[in-house]
Fold this sequence. Notes:
It is built from 10 helices and 14 strands. The chain has helices at about 45-50, 70-75, 95-105, 110-120, 140-150, 170-185, 195-200, 220-225, 270-280, 295-309; strands at about 5-15, 15-30, 30-35, 60-65, 65, 80, 155-160, 185-190, 205-210, 210-215, 230-235, 250-255, 260-265, 285-290. A 6-stranded mixed beta sheet has the order 6-7-8-3-9-10, with helices on both faces. A 4-stranded antiparallel beta sheet has the order 2-1-4-5. A 4-stranded antiparallel beta sheet has the order 12-13-11-14, covered by helices on one side. Helix 3 (about 95-105) crosses helix 4, helix 5 packs parallel to helix 6 and helix 8 packs across helix 10 (about 295-309). The longest helix is centred in the middle third of the chain and has 16 residues, at about 170-185. The radius of gyration is 24 Å and the shape is elongated.
Amino acid sequence: MTxxxxxxxLTKKFGKNTVVDHVSFEVSEGEIFxxxxxxxxxxxxxxxxxxxxxxxxxxxxxxxxxxIMKSPVYAKQRFGVVPETSNxxxxxxxQQNMFxxxxxxxxxxxxILRRTEELLTLVGLIExxxxxxxxxxxxxxxxxxxxxxxxxxxELLFLDEPTSGLDVQSTHMILSLLRDLNRNGMTxxxxxxxxxxxxxLCNRVGIIRAGKMIALDAPEKLKxxxxxxxxxxxxxxxxxxSIEPGDLPGIIRAEKTGDKWQIIxxxxxxAIRSIVAYSGEQNTAIVTLNTLAPTLDExxxxxxxxxxx
Length: 309
């Protein structure tokens, strides 16, 4: 696969503080790549180096074949950026902002007009194209800057926390648009601390903590990597005595929450057989029995805790 982004030992220091520490990864053409981390982990700083906003202290970043520090203009002509905070001019209308962005990319007026109509329709703002942006909600502003970032038909899109603080409707629309863009061939680099968002969207995720990359893989592989213990949730038709780990093979611990038992097991097959046998011994039926996979949130927490040790 064609390599669209390559970071080699990217490092950034502010004074004596190293905020990005020898980060390396690559993103292939057609991927949605999630860059995850808590606030202050180094996500935005890394993105700013990749997009040529900040110089690195050491290491290199290659975007669409160009060294972003040596050939920023060539690279920037081929990617779009959606920052976390709206950079639209609030005293201008949506249409005026789109035209300004098109002129910055030196697009012909006819193309700017066509793309403005297409994109404002796409993001649901065409009916309010002549309204000043200062009257827009945060979700509307975010949709506008997404449209602005797409006016020059980029091959690659960088997004920094694109749904942070948005209402449900705007979040759903932006995520849906990103899926459609990706289906049409666009590569997407997404920074977020929203694990569920990353789990829904991304082909692969990289997790950064305190400036260092601590994990890089597909979401399901990251979840399975921490799945050393399994969880089973079971409910019985009537109350049963306390389930003790020593009583049933394969069970590490068990805790009742509401009308269900949350059971941590080392061997799913052995534990399920034990639970079925136990229900017979107690002369009761199993109402529900579910094996629960770890979430990306749990993987993130486990991985960052292990890194701290």
